[in-house]
Amino acid sequence: MDLTGKKVSVIGAGKSGMAAAELLCRKGAKVLVSEFGRIGAVDLLRLREMPLSFEQEGHSARVYEADFCVLSPGIPPHAEVVTTMQAKGIPLYSEIEIASWFCKARIVGITGTDGKTTTSTLVHRICEEDGLRQGYRAFSVGNIGVPFSSMVSDMNIGDVAVVELSSYQLERSPTFRPDVAVITNITPDHLDRYGGDMNSYAAAKFSIYANQRAVDTLVCNGDDPLLREHFIDGMERFPFRIVPFGMDLVFEAKQASCIVVLEGDALCVRTVDGDDRVIETSEFLKNSFRGRHNISNVLAAVAVARALGIDNDVVRRVLREFRGVEHRQEYVLTINGADWVNDSKATNINAMRQALEALPGTAILIAGGRDKGNDYASITELVRKKVSLIIAIGESRGKITAAFKEVVPVEAVATLNDAVLFAHNAVRPGQTVLFSPGCASFDMFNNFEDRGMQFKQCVHQLSPC
Q: Which CATH number is 80's domain given?
């Protein structure tokens, strides 16, 4: 892709926008970075050191003097700058799309509503371990926190780029083509962005396979009804290989060349030649990495490893050492016989459900934030069974109170620290205090990582240990 002299507008000066701008400059493009808000001091210094133009506190008419535009994922599709670009016929691309133009490495693209980060982390660690033996490098990029564009120039043929992908990033990626694509599941999320339409949300996720060919592989969750209906029940319609995974799959290997399943307590790769037992669940499920959903994530990672030709002994070694992902059902402390768990990564109801289902006993649940169109009624019976008290925070605390006040006691508080203190006074030995917001973080925090770190700080302040 020759970009020499091409005029490119980068809308948004966040992490992905800055990384895309740097990559485009190296490729000879004439770049304008345009930020609707104020650009931070550190990023201003970076911009002044690059051969480009930039503006802040609004988008000028200059942004439309472009051959194409790179759009940051957080910018909504109805924003004026987006609709004007579309009206003028200016192509809009994601940072993921731009980076993929220059990627020499094999790409493993991972999307889905839940499990993306855990699956991506597992796959990356498996590839890292295998790469030490086989002589290639593995990169973890995308929605996991490191922009694809910031690392793509370091990737060589034979390396592996593990790219975690949100629906936002896939929306503007018309030629993106992973060698191995993964869809962990599809459940309601971000419906505020998609006008409440699950089909539109699913379509954004499904674009991950749009450019795959016969040599490529799609790994998908056969336990998910939507994915099963779309991919597995009509597998012959697709030109690429499909590898289903799941805990409840009952169809035979002859319906797919390879299936990854839970057989009793063992994870197995099933082919027409029989079952290849990879590992027992008891070997990897631990305090900070437990629950049925994490078995599903491991099944997905095993399927990817098989697609990449990685030996089982490598997979076993990584899984035995894995302790989970920060902010995802992360064990923090035990205080006075009660466990405290940080699940700040739970930004939707399904993630909250998974955390509750994984609990060994009952919990005090701290939840709330910026609501994304959540249907709290879908977890009413689970809350009744597993939760003794809900402490509601953030913009959605009124909605949460209304949804659950007839189910369990609910206490609405002003701050996260207030919630931690209230939970500390109310929890009993043997219970868990679960911080699983089920909502976005942007009403009170910079992101879910900031939210999780603040929760852990509040908890540690309760105990001198």
A: 3.40.50.720
Q: Which of 186, 74, 121 is nearest to 440 (CA)?
A: 74
| 348/365 same-domain check | yes
Backbone angles phi, psi at 286, to 5 degrees: -135, 180
CATH number at residue 454: 3.90.190.20
Same domain? For 75 and 207 the reply is no
Coil/strand/helix, residue 184: coil
Burial of 315 (0-12, 13-18, 19+ CB in 10 A): buried
Tell me whether strands 266-271 and 274-280 are parallel, antiparallel or unpaired: antiparallel
- Name the domain count of the chain: 3
Contact present, 245 and 222 (Cβ < 8 Å): yes
CATH of the domain at 183: 3.40.1190.10
**Tens digit of pLDDT at every position of the chain (465 positions):** 799 999 999 999 999 999 999 999 999 999 999 999 999 899 999 999 999 999 999 999 999 999 999 999 888 888 999 999 999 999 999 999 999 999 999 999 999 988 899 999 999 999 999 999 999 999 999 988 899 999 999 999 999 999 999 888 998 999 999 999 999 999 865 556 656 567 788 888 899 999 999 999 999 999 998 898 888 877 888 999 999 999 887 654 445 678 999 999 999 999 888 889 999 999 998 766 777 888 999 999 999 999 999 999 999 999 999 988 889 888 898 999 999 999 999 998 988 998 898 888 899 999 999 998 888 999 999 999 999 999 999 999 999 999 999 999 999 999 999 999 999 999 999 999 999 999 999 899 999 999 999 999 999 998 654
**Same structural domain, 122 and 264:** yes
38 in a structural domain: yes
Q: Is residue 2 domain-resident?
A: no
Look at strands 92-93 and 68-71 and give their pairing: parallel
pTM for the whole structure: 0.81
DSSP 429: T
Last residue of a domain, one of 321, 349, 375: 321
What DSSP element (H or E) covers 218? strand 217-221
